[in-house]
Amino acid sequence: MEQRTYVLHTGAILTEYLEAYENVGLPVQKPILGGFLGYFVTEFGTQNELNHFWAYRDLEDRRTRRAELARSPQWQKCLSIIRPMIMTMENKVMYPTSFSPIRSLPVTVQDADTAFTAN
């Protein structure tokens, strides 16, 4: 799983970033990258912080998909809008533990007492 964390410049308007990303970027990312797990903003802690999570089969799958995304004119258009708003970017690739509800794609989790099952 990859966690991508962006912090926007203080003067950037979060709603403008999210609107551009939702309407221009995400529609091209989802079919190319697959494995979209979620996109989150912070309420407390670092302000103007965005975190999004993507799942890949392995690092080669990630590399291939990210290369295809980089060739997309629609993704380049999105970057031209959102990149000036971003102050910092951090990526983390994480591996699941043996007891993690998310261990592989597609996510089909039946573990009790997780966010993926009805209680």
Describe this structure in words.
With 119 residues, this protein is of the alpha+beta class. Helix content is 35%, strand content 23%. The chain has 3 helices and 4 strands, in the order E-H-E-E-H-H-E. The protein has helices spanning 14-33, 59-70, 73-82; strands at residues 2-8, 36-41, 49-54, 86-93. Strands 2-3-1-4 form a 4-stranded antiparallel sheet, covered by helices on one side. Strand 2 and strand 3 form a beta hairpin.
The number of E-state strands comes to 4
| Side-by-side strand order of the widest sheet | 2-3-1-4
Which blocks of ≥5 consecutive residues have pLDDT under 50? none
Task: Look at the helices and sheets and give the structural class.
Answer: alpha+beta
Give the overall pLDDT as a whole number.
Answer: 90
The Rg value, from CA coordinates, equals: 15 Å
The percent range for helix content is 25-40%
What spatial form do the alpha-carbon principal axes imply?
A: globular
- End-to-end C-alpha gap: 25 Å
Q: What summary fits the major beta sheet?
A: 4 strands, antiparallel
The total of helices stands at 3
Q: What is the chain-wise order of helices and strands?
A: EHEEHHE
Report the portion of residues in β strands: 15-25%
Quick tags:
globular; 119 residues; 3 helices; alpha+beta; 35% helix
What's the layout of helices and strands?
Layout: E1 2-8, H1 14-33, E2 36-41, E3 49-54, H2 59-70, H3 73-82, E4 86-93
Antiparallel strand pairs: 1-3, 1-4, 2-3
Helix pairs in contact: 1-2, 1-3
Quick description:
The protein has 119 residues and is an alpha+beta fold. Helices cover 35% and strands 23% of the residues.
